[in-house]
Amino acid sequence: MSDPYVEAWERSIKDPNGFWGEAAEAIHWYKRWDKVLDDSNPPFYRWFVGGELNTCYNALDRHVEGGRADQAAMIYDSPVTDTIKKYTYRQLRDEVALFAGALADRGVVKGDRVLIYMPMIPQAAIAMLACARIGAIHSVVFGGFASNELATRINDAKPKVIVSASCGIEVKRIIPYKPLLDEAIRMSNSDAQPKSCIIYQRPMETAPLVPGRDMGWQEAVAAAKPADCVPVAATDPLYILYTSGTTGQPKGVVRDNGGHAVALNWSMKAIYNVDAGDVYWAASDVGWVVGHSYIVYAPLLRGCTTILFEGKPVGTPDAGVFWRVIGEHKVRAMFTAPTAFRAIKREDPRAELMQKYDLSNFDTLFLAGERLDPDTLKWAQNALHVPVIDHWWQTETGWAICANCMGLHQYPVKEGSPTKPAPGWNLQVVDPDNKQLPAGQIGALVVKLPLPPGTLPTLYKNDQGYIKSYLEEFPGYYKTADAGFIDQDGYVFVMARTDDIINVAGHRLSTGGMEEVLSDHPDVAECAVVGVEDNLKGQVPVGFVVLKAGVTRPHEEIINELVKMVRDRIGAVASFKKATVVKRLPKTRSGKILRGTIQKIADNKVYKTPATIDDPAILDEMKDALVGIGYAQARQ
Questions:
Q1: For 278-315, what is each residue's pLDDT tens digit?
Q2: Whole-Å CA distances, 593 to 53, 379, 497, 530, 599
Q3: 20 to 30 Å CA-CA from 537: which of 264, 346, 454, 610?
Q4: Whether the domain at 4-311+391-484 and the domain at 505-635 fall into the same CATH topology
């Protein structure tokens, strides 16, 4: 019996021109491409060279003209402001065209950069699409980012205009954005500062405007005329997205227009099994790559209804908010991070809040952004009774490297695996000498060049940095910086970042494998394992666990059980002897646990508080926890 996934994957590797050329037929082109893949200048591969298109036209106007004008394009659901607002494709196109006109009034033309520093409100997506409409390059910076980090991005992108809002809203507080933005502009180089800023004033807090530089969104739009779509080259940049934790020279990931539109449109059906008219929800933020790819662009390119959610998985108002959104808006597929589900599981271990909502339209849950521990996987499967699909990708790749491609062929789920490489991805496991490793052996996960469309063609104004960061270590391959293995059935297992492989007395061990064991304990809600320096063994693993709500057993008892579990499943070689219970783990705003920072604290090394951290105060809690088990003494 034929397997559509196998056929698609093999064709994408053997005949990329035919495979992606066919996928590109679903996109509107002002001028067809001369060549699908231009491989004349490796490692700088380019897709759809000679082609001209407009991403905003493909995301909005095409559907208005094609009969979807009155279908919902975007639903803004904001429990923090008690607001639900729906935009049809026609309404969204009209608002985008008007704001594109407002940008043009500020002198923005094709190729100019526009920096967007916004909360999760419709105006953030409208600003992104407006830039795409007139050929400007947007760079979205996560709302509420610290001023110095914002300044480094202003210096690199040199935006003509910055679009922001007066404030963002967290669960229990308002975050004024304007003072952060004003300070960032003050700190940035004079040649990089924007000529003007457009500020969306939110009713809960208005911001003072700088005369001559700032203008209110509402006033800018009132004075504007709608702008038409501007054709751009397929190889022209659509956006720059700076990777989190940037220090010194920022790493601005560039995304092109042509390959991005083709790959993302194709991925909606092939990977997520959703089509035009379906409601799709990526519970992320437009400041992250997931927000770019799967809140704004991919669902609209496909003609779906996308949900823009301003809230949290718990606390807005409770751990049932995800189920409310799924039920109320008839969501077919959802994509979020495992950390969101761990938070829900911790607050509502038996998923009792789910019973209040009708989830009969819900087909599939997709999780990504970090390793999906088996306990969270099983909990979600048991609660939802739908496929729970782990998939793996990165800011740089723009879409999934590995996935259970639900629109091609649904494979049985294996715990701990994002299944198989998606079509277009020639994924391999190599040793430090760039030699391919056999099935089952842990090594560096790398992708044979060329990368498929939709991935980064380079870094902004930094071709050498692109080569050094991603291509130098393993010639002919893209370095994912993740370690793992591929089993006999072709399933990929992403064990850890390559710097999370620890060396215990000469044995290379994955902290991810140990985390998998700890998360299996019935009392553990989430966990992290880091390698800490040890005079005898080089490194030893130390565990940090957050317990589920309502657990009252003595911590010492639980720790002893965890140590025994690791010994039983991984062996004495792991030398796992120390763990501690903490109230919470330090994370980025996108939910990634800051293991590197924990490790530096434990090793008494100087560390910089990451710009992406959700709550800096948590680092002091980690120091206290580490001191309690005999580490970080020098900090006392």
A1: 999 999 999 889 999 999 999 999 999 999 999 999 99
A2: 39, 20, 12, 11, 12
A3: 610
A4: no
pTM to 2 decimals?
Answer: 0.85
* DSSP bridge pairs for 201: none
| Residue whose token pair is 């400041």 | 287
- What does CATH list as the number for 505-635? 3.30.300.30
The CB density around residue 593, as the number of other CB atoms within 10 Å, is 21
- Cα separation, 184 vs 548, whole angstroms: 40
Tokens of 537: 């063994």
Residues in contact with 486: Cβ distance below 8 Å, sequence separation at least 6, in sequence order? 427, 428, 429, 439, 440, 492, 493
390 and 364 Cβ atoms separated by less than 8 Å:
no
Place of tokens 């100087």: 606
Enter the tokens of residue 346.
């911790």
What's the CA gap between 529 and 602, in Å, rounded? 12
| Rounded distance between C-alpha atoms, residue 13 and residue 10, angstroms | 5
CATH class of 4-311+391-484: alpha beta
Three-state secondary structure call for residue 30: coil
- pLDDT tens, 600-611? 888 888 888 887
For 172, the enclosing helix (H) or strand (E) is: none
In the chain, the amino acid numbered 470 is Y
Q: Check whether 438 has a pLDDT greater than 80.
A: yes
Cis omega before residue 450 (within 30°)?
yes
- DSSP symbols for 206-219: --PPPTTTEEEHHH
Tell me how far apart the alpha carbons of residues 400 and 198 are, in angstroms, rounded to a whole number. Answer: 34
| C-alpha to C-alpha distance for 210 and 196, rounded to whole angstroms | 9
Omega before residue 313 within 30° of 0, cis:
no
Other beta carbons within 10 angstroms of residue 463's beta carbon come to 13
- Our measurement of the distance from residue 286's CA atom to the centroid of its chain's CA atoms, rounded to an integer in Å, reads 9
Q: How far from 6 is each of 129, 211, 418, 423, 559, CA to CA, in Å?
A: 35, 60, 16, 8, 45
Single out the residue of 234, 237, 236, 232 nearest to residue 253, CA to CA. 237
CB-count burial class (<10 Å; 0-12, 13-18, 19+) for 194: buried
Give the count of alpha carbons within 13 A of 180, CB side only. Answer: 20
Q: Which single residue is written with the structure tokens 């997205």?
A: 241
| C-beta atoms surrounding 471 within 10 Å | 17
Helix (H) or strand (E) holding 440: none
Domain boundaries, the chain: 4-311+391-484, 505-635
DSSP, residue by residue, 556-584: HHHHHHHHHHHHHHT-GGG---EEEE-S-
